[in-house]
Each structure stands twice: as C-alpha cells, then as structure tokens.
Amino acid sequence: MKKRRKELRLATGEIEILEILWQAGAATIAQAHESHKRKVGYTTVQTRLNRLVEKGLAKRIGSHPASYQAVIQPEDVSRDDLKVLVDRVTGGRVVPLVAHLVKDRKLSSEEIRELKELINEAERRNQKSKSGEGEQ
Amino acid sequence: MKKRRKELRLATGEIEILEILWQAGAATIAQAHESHKRKVGYTTVQTRLNRLVEKGLAKRIGSHPASYQAVIQPEDVSRDDLKVLVDRVTGGRVVPLVAHLVKDRKLSSEEIRELKELINEAERRNQKSKSGEGEQ
DNA sequence: CCTCTTTTACGACATGTGTCATAAGCGGGA
DNA sequence: TCCCGCTTATGACACATGTCGTAAAAGAGG
Fold first, then answer.
1. B58 — pLDDT class (breaks 50, 70, 90)
2. Which of A32, A33, A129, B18 is the most exposed place for a label (fewest CB within 10 A)?
3. A111 contact B CB<8A
4. CA distance linking residue B92 with residue A46, whole number of Å
5. Each residue of B90-123: pLDDT tens digit?
C-alpha cells in the first residue's frame, strides 16, 4: 500500500531547500550551502536539511561528506500544495498561468509537441462530454 | 516611489486566508470563517485575519461587522512567491505542470483555443531562434 | 601519533503559526 | 431598560521555523 502522506503542507522555507536538492539531485551540506541564494549560515542549512530528513522529506546518503536527497518529488508538491495555490491564485484559470510559463522561458520542440498533445487530449475529452454545463 | 516590499514571503496558511479575501473582495470574520474550507474555529480565523492586518497584507474596513480586504493582489504573489515556486517546483519543466492542470479540470473551448494559441506562439518563437543550443 | 580542516551533533532562542478559550462590547428587540 | 447574540479584544500555548554558536568526531597530512 502506498505510503500516503495526509497533507503535505510545505513551508516556504522548506521548498527553498528542496529546490536545491531537486536541482542537484543530491547535495552535501556544503554544496547546498553554496547553492543557497539568500545566503544564510552553514549550520542553518545543516539544520534545515536535517529537519527535512526528520520529516521524511529528504534522506541522507553516505557517511562523511553525506549527501542529502529529496524524497518527495516536485510532482508530489504539485498535487497538494501547489495545486491549491496555483488554482486559487490564477482563479482557477489555467490560461494565464500557462501563458506566464511559456512566455517566460523557451521551450524545446519536444516540449512543444507534448504540450500540443496535452491540449488535444483535453480537447477530445471536452468534445466527448459536450452535454450541458451552463455556468459561465 | 513604489512602496516596494522587500521580499514578500507568504506562509502557506496566509494564502489560505488571502484566497478567501481575493475571492470575495472583502469579507467579515464570519464570512471568512464560512468560506474557509478546512474548517477551523471562529477565533482562529479572527486571529489569522488580524495578523494579516498587522503585517499590512490586509486591511479592516468598517466598524461593527468589520470587513477585511486584501492589500496585496494575486499578481503580487505570482510575481514573487509563486513565480519562483512554480518555476522551481516544476524544475523549469512546464509540461508536467500543464499536464496536471489540464488533466485535472475541464477546459472550455475558449480556453483550449487560447492555450493552442500560446503554444503556437511559443513554437514560432522557438523556430525563429533555432541556432545553436546543444545542452540536452 | 599529533594537528588542522571539514563534518556532524546538539542545544539554544527569538519569532512565526495554528488554534482556541474567555472575557468584554454593543445594538436591537422584548 | 435589560438581556441575548454577534463582534471584538486579549491572552495562552504548543509546535514549527529561521538562525546560529559550540563542541565533539573523523579524516588527511606530516
């Protein structure tokens, strides 16, 4: 059975650290400390990392220069925290959000293709159930 | 000069309340309490609302059944908090995020059209600058 | 084996958050 | 005018977070 975390509410700061781990795959305290934008003390990073481990959001690997690795994936966050956040902030409107995303960075042809595919799927789904929904 | 808030780090919970205010425009404690999904005590909402005011993120209007109104707008959040969050959480990868968004809800034909348009734009932009970037 | 540097382990502390319970205040109807 | 229910004002608390300082442990060299 799936180890289902009931809520997964990430604090702003926790994501700060997780970002680093996701980006690097794994990082030692020193590395994480380096990558940390808003510079803070070394031990601060250490503590944060450890607390993340305690909460089961990350795990330690190796002994001396131990590396930390995120246990949860970005997708996991999307499902809980981010989902609500994004949905509400964009008022449930995906277009503005997507606009922001695609305009802000350059996509590869591959991504473009996948995106199109997604839209098409949605369209098909949309077509299929075109019965009666009138709330504007 | 613009009153530039230096950082704007919103705690997960603050957004919960702000959402309500954005959605309603303004709300009394009672109303906010009602609209609050994850039900909590009346005074809890009261406290949260007040703390928001203290931090200048919302303001009180009227006296007896006082209404609270958000001072910052969703856009403000998008620009600071959300932007970083989304970008990083999806690891810079928009596809998974969009996938999540479009699969999770039904889009109107209108939205589908707009989405397609966005993708096409991106594609065009992509085409234009197809010179040399080889990092996979 | 001794010393220096890098890693870890702890412990501390001020704030921030989440959640309430209680106790005053106030207006309107009986 | 007096009481009742809805509003506010406080005060409390436990736990979470943000940030470190220090001291103990472990390897790397000499």
1. very high
2. A129
3. yes
4. 26
5. 555 667 667 766 766 677 787 888 888 888 888 8
Distance of alpha carbon B101 from alpha carbon B119, whole angstroms: 15
User: With a 7 Å cutoff on the CB, does A29 touch strand C?
Assistant: yes
With 0.90 as the threshold, say if the pTM is over it.
no
Residue A13's nearest nucleotide, by CA–C1', is D17
Where is average pLDDT lowest: A61-75, B20-34, B70-84?
B70-84
The gap between B93 CA and D10 C1' (Å) is 48
Triad B77, B78, B82: Cα angle to 5°: 90
Alpha carbon distance B97, B78 (integer Å): 15
| CA pair distance A97, A81, nearest whole angstrom | 16
Strand partners, B28: B67
pLDDT averaged over chain B? Answer: 75
> What are the pLDDT digits (tens) for A89-119?
555 566 766 776 676 667 778 888 888 888 8
Any idea how long chain A is?
Answer: 136
User: DSSP secondary structure string, chain B?
Assistant: -----S-----HHHHHHHHHHHHHSSEEHHHHHHH-SS---HHHHHHHHHHHHHTTSEEEESSTT-EEEESS-HHHHIIIIIHHHHHHHTTT-HHHHHHHHHHHSPPPHHHHHHHHHHHHHHHHHHHHT-S-----
**Could you give the percent of chain A with pLDDT greater than 90?**
23
